[in-house]
Amino acid sequence: MIDLREPWSIGPVEVPTRLVLAPMAGVSVQAFRRQGRRFGAGLVCSEMVSCAGIEHGNERTLGYLRVASDEHPLAIQLFGSDPRAMADAARMIESVGADLVDVNFGCPVKKVTRTGAGAHLLEDRDRACAIVSAIADAVEIPVTVKLRRGVRNGSRSALELGPRLVEAGASSLTLHPRSAEQMYTGTADHSLTAELVSLVGVPVVASGDITSRARAQAVLTTTGAEAVMVGRGAQGNPWALREIVDGDGHEPTREEVAAELVLFIRETVRELGERRASGFLKKFYGWYLGRGRFPKPFKQELLRLDSTEEVERRLLAAAPAAIEIVERLEAEVPGGAEQTLELPVSIYGGG
Ligand SMILES: Cc1cc2nc3c(=O)[nH]c(=O)nc-3n(C[C@H](O)[C@H](O)[C@H](O)COP(=O)(O)O)c2cc1C
After folding, report:
1. Which residues have any ligand 1 atom within 6 Å of their CB?
2. Atom 18 of ligand 1 has which residue's CA nearest to it?
3. What separation, in Å, do the N-terminal and C-terminal C-alpha atoms of the chain show?
4. CA of 328 to the centre of ligand 1 (A)
5. Which of 143, 166, 196, 315 is the most exposed place for a label (fewest CB within 10 A)?
6. CA of 157 relative to ligand 1 center, distance in Å
7. Quick check: pTM over 0.85?
């Protein structure tokens, strides 16, 4: 058995557990990242932020990224295609206190790839290396890269590109071994992750379809990856992280579910403001309350409510003992200085 509570390092940055919370556009807000840390993720990553070049292309964004003092170690993910603009943006990322700058070479969404960014860079290897090298020259913090296997089905681009990215200055690589064409269909082929591990001398993180402790153990053992990354499995289900790291598979009570959701709502409203948060949060209601935790009509009722205050009131009425848990959790969450990164968060995610 591999101990997921073992620390490991990316350059000088120590990561306390071998579980990384995936960057997910439209999901990885600050409340998600903080919750991930509480449930055992050793490293969390922001949603992708756009370097200035894409901001000017009228991208729709979710506002600006806020960084709190209790999120570290934190990676902030950047996407774009111009090495100079990426290096400038990386300096801004460093100045708000990120521990790592992560570069997105995996986003399959056309709005991103047609600007030459995201997964497009898997096939534009000289440019991909120029981006990593420009960022590594610009900042002191380690540069990491998140890749898909390639653009087309069956592609092995990541295996050709990976070692070159390390030469260009990448301190760690995360591989989601699906093609961009595949989006999220089929399965992640972690035999490619094992190949990548054998080709590079830096830590590799395995991403894709890791939803249980058994799967995490199997992927770590068969690939030699340093850590696993969990994305969709943690949506509305931070308890999955605890199960993966500690083997604590107890199902949360209704009160625990309601309390985590209330805290999530409150923090997200603080981060995004009520207007943006109320729409943004709707998908989370289904994620939290599904899995047989609450009856379907209750979930549908929440979706029809206009304000997050009403949602909170309904949740606490359905599980009154949650109030005490929320109070305890709020007392535990440290306040403290926040910094805002003046780069827009993209809603067009993927990787
Ligand atoms: C809604 C959503 C948004 C995503 N956004 C990003 C992103 O902004 N950057 C990135 O590198 N990967 C992104 N991904 C990919 C995930 O980080 C992860 O690699 C992928 O979902 C596979 O892992 P999983 O099976 O654990 O979900 C996103 C995935 C989802 C489902």
Report:
1. 22-27, 47-48, 77, 104, 106-107, 146, 176, 207-210, 230-233, 349-351
2. 231
3. 29
4. 31
5. 166
6. 19
7. yes
Q: How far apart are CA 63 and CA 111, in angstroms?
A: 18
Task: Tell me the average confidence (pLDDT) per consecutive run of 10 residues in the chain, 351 residues long.
Answer: 96 98 94 95 93 53 77 94 94 93 95 92 98 98 98 98 98 98 96 98 98 98 98 98 95 96 95 91 95 92 95 97 95 76 73 71
| C-alpha distances out from residue 42 to 100, 137, 241, Å | 13, 26, 10
pLDDT tens across 164-199, in order? 999 999 999 999 999 999 999 999 999 999 999 999
Query: Is 51 annotated as catalytic?
Result: no
Residue 133 CA to residue 136 CA, distance in Å, equals: 5
- The token pair that represents 7 in the structure block: 């620390």
Residue 29 Cα distances to 147, 155, 167, 172, 271, angstroms: 21, 32, 32, 23, 8
Q: Is the four-CA dihedral 176, 179, 180, 183 of positive or negative sign?
A: negative
Which residue, judged by its Cα, is nearest atom 21 of ligand 1?
231
Bridge-based pairing of strands 61-68 and 338-346 is: antiparallel
Q: How many CB atoms lie within 10 A of CB 323?
A: 15
Amino acid at 2: I
**What is the Cα 318 distance to its own chain's centre?**
31
